[in-house]
Amino acid sequence: MADDLNDVTDDETNESSEAQIAVHWREEDYYEPPAALAAQANASDPAIRDQFTEDKFPDCFTAYADLLTWYKPWDTVLDTSKAPFWKWFVGGELNASYNCVDRHMQTHPNKAALIWIPEPETEAHQAITYRELYVRVNEFAAVLKDLGLKAGDRITFHMPMVPELPVAMLAAARLGVIHSQVFAGFSGTAAGHRIADSGSTVLVTMDGYYRSGDLLDHKVKADEAVEAAAREGQHVDKVLVFRRYPGQYSAKTPMVEGRDVFVDDLLAAHKGEIVEPTRLSATDPLFLMYTSGTTGRPKGCQHSIGGYLSYVAGTSKYYQDIHPDDTYWCMADIGWITGHSYIVYGPLALGTTSVMYEGTPNYPDAGRPWRIAQQLGVNIFHTSPTAIRMLRKVGPDEPAKYDYHFKTMTTVGEPIEPEVWRWYYKTVGKGEAAITDTWWQTETGGFLGSTLPGIDKMKPGSCGPAALGIYPVILDEDANEVPAGSGKAGNICIRAPWPGVFQTIWGQPERFVSTYYAKYNKDPESKDWHDWPYFAGDGALEAADGYFRILGRVDDVINVAGHRLGTKELESAALTVDEVAEAAAVPVVDDIRGRVVEMYISLKPGVEPSADVENKVKVAIETDIGKIARPKNIWIVPDMPKTRSGKIMRRVIAATSNFTDTGDITTLANPEVVEKIREQVQSAKRAKGEVPRELSETEEHEIKSFGQE
Ligand code: WTA
Q1: What confidence tens digit (pLDDT) does each residue in 296-331 have?
Q2: Best of 502, 564, 699 to mutate for ligand 1, by most ligand atoms within 8 A of CB?
């Protein structure tokens, strides 16, 4: 018994010391912000930082709240009495839909709120003015109200990138109905799990949408979602189906009598109806956004109305540098937090024109984004490293062919390699635009680390300094501060709360505390925020200049093309296949998608490896999660490398798949299997031409520490 315990401790000490090895990180050169941008920027004077120093916390954030219109101002800026369930702007009352729609409809009704670009180039774009948005939001709010939905109820959307999605979000927000939008690329089953978790009785979907030239049948996923939710005991009463072409049905899946209704039919009964926005408390929830974590059950991150909306409005103003006449395009999907914060809520709260695009960036060719930018006069552009890497690969010279001019460009969601950054800067930005590399998370609502585009020098590969009012610290496993510039990586934490931080995990308050706050809290009774650093789950280091370099997740999460996939979710899906005994998912460095998943499985006794089993695993993952999670390779191995306590050593198989050093394996229960797996996997990968390039120091760090938690 004592022996066993010793073994466990040995394994763990060994892993964490390895993760903490100091590395000599190469520094990149700085780039100055373009002078023309600096001259007009919303944040043009470095003294803005003085307004957000720690001695001014938390009142500094009222500058963000003041960007909104309140029915009733708050009494308390920050209430910490239920730490770490922070409450912002307590006593304040407002409505998000009013702030994003009505007040702009009053001042500039004919300005475009949204410009929607359908994927087929033969279809004209649609400009939706604030006046028209007001009408559509009210009519859809009337539909929801008619279904009996009211403040505090939940509603699930499984919608593609069409204007009906922001309309639906703002209609729900008008009533105080908590919306949960599930990324359209997720499977019906994944949507079903989220419907069940949130307790939604209404699902809003669409018959079809375009992706890479195909009009996909999306309605079929609604049927799967309703079934999956029912298996978890959640009954869906109504499925509201928007039609991609109103009046004509674009899906093959039949409508279910009594349950499924076409939204365009329902809207006809509510023409011109006005629904007064509900006066809601600042601390009421606005929406849930599900994300993956270390267990199979996804986390419904609950965001507040007052704090969240203030934070995304403030950061849109200073970091996206949005001015009234700008045309802003964020090419993310509203199914993710980026789209919520920086396509819908932030830009519309500021009364911006926000561009939305239905399809894939390289459809029908790699010039598409730049044609859209030229056609609409987009001057602020926002996308992910994966999209940039892809456009660079398939159309490195395309941007030069188009006449557009960006003043700022954002990247979000994953680390961007310095070479890719430089292409973005020189070729896409034509050397005229500032780049903001924004580091943040679903949980954080808005940016945590970024340069201010008109003030700060840029450094490729680093997100830059902390955002205004954000006080990060890097801690080691023993809660000691890792000194800036020491070359040592640690866990990045945020010391003080900020208005955009999520309020809780829907239905799992203990998990909220244990995942994000317990690690570095020494006194669970404390009401002082100083005792509750927010643990972001990312490795990072701070250079001597105060710029942060984000090294990736320290938990079992794989970031594929900017989308977080939990290894447990992937593995549970694989384990639904009868023949599978054990499954382990690991990240593999990929030149376009950042990381892709490789799945290792071992089979039950007596089962022979076969293409059939492999295929079953693939289908199980696509069904349970969606095509984005499809593993690049599935390796059926004789056994998994394990610690003596029986834990699968994911870092060892991750090293194998990435052709890097497996590190110390002497503590394994079965070290001999490592060589066998290496031989099997690496020779197969060589034969397929999948030997990766040499990894960067950041990538190497991530692979070495994968699964350490
Ligand atoms: C990673 C996306 C490096 C990080 C807004 C984080 C980044 C996770 C960056 C959150 C960045 C996000 N540089 N890594 N600029 N931005 N990440 O919840 O690991 O989808 O924890 O939110 O993406 O992903 P999420």
Answers
A1: 788 999 999 999 999 999 999 999 999 999 999 999
A2: 564
